[in-house]
Amino acid sequence: MSKSKISITINEKTLHDIDSIIDNVYIRNRSQAIEHLAKSALGENKTAVILLGGSEERLKISKDEYRPTARVKGIPVIVLALKKLRENNFKTVFIVARHALLTKLFDMLKDGADYGVRINYIEEKSSSGTAYSLMMLKGKINTNFLVVYGDILFNKINIEELWNDHIKQNAAATIMLTTSPKPSEKGTVRVEGSKVLTFTQKPKKSDIYLVFSPVFVTEPQIFEYSGKSLEFDVFPELADKGLLNGHLSSEKEVHIHSKKDLERMR
Description:
266 residues; alpha/beta; Spore Coat Polysaccharide Biosynthesis Protein SpsA, Chain A; 7-stranded mixed beta sheet; 29% helix; globular
């Protein structure tokens, strides 16, 4: 694609903010930083990943029904996710799952054209954790992207604010944060401003009620970190290195893990 050389006038504070996202790895100079920000602001084809890896039995809510295919007010959870993503200009979607679930999702969604997106199906043969599932996409995505877990409803979440917050900060990943009365069941975080200082998955005891909500924006550099689990391995390491940011959401996602969860939604 051809590029044009232009001259612009910009105030020093904005220029400083632009320079702050240069990481010398994926964004190496000011021109790339401005182009990166402009594409994001204009809503150019953004990429999202829906993670549904791991045991298919774990993702079932009945003998024949999976969490993402369960219906809330007549609409499958996965369809609600796609509609939310498309509303926020995510037009390329990767779905990671194992064969039986992936087949059922393909039968339901096809190539995604009916929902205004292009779906790429990534079959996982085996998995030892969320980081392993995400690693299936290494080499397939070369720009910042959104990750959501496929068994949640997030239609009330302001994804645009999460996305923009990540763009403005120099971080490898920006995770969504909410509060929980049961932090021992979640990933708890200590934060200073927007910087996540520590990430602890399912602590035995905790007086920290700020927790990870399974939605985040990340850079391709996340593929460079090893570990089986995002929550147990990758996020703690990113936090230790000062590369993990948090975005506090006023709304919470809804987990669809059982028929009781569906009944509550109805």
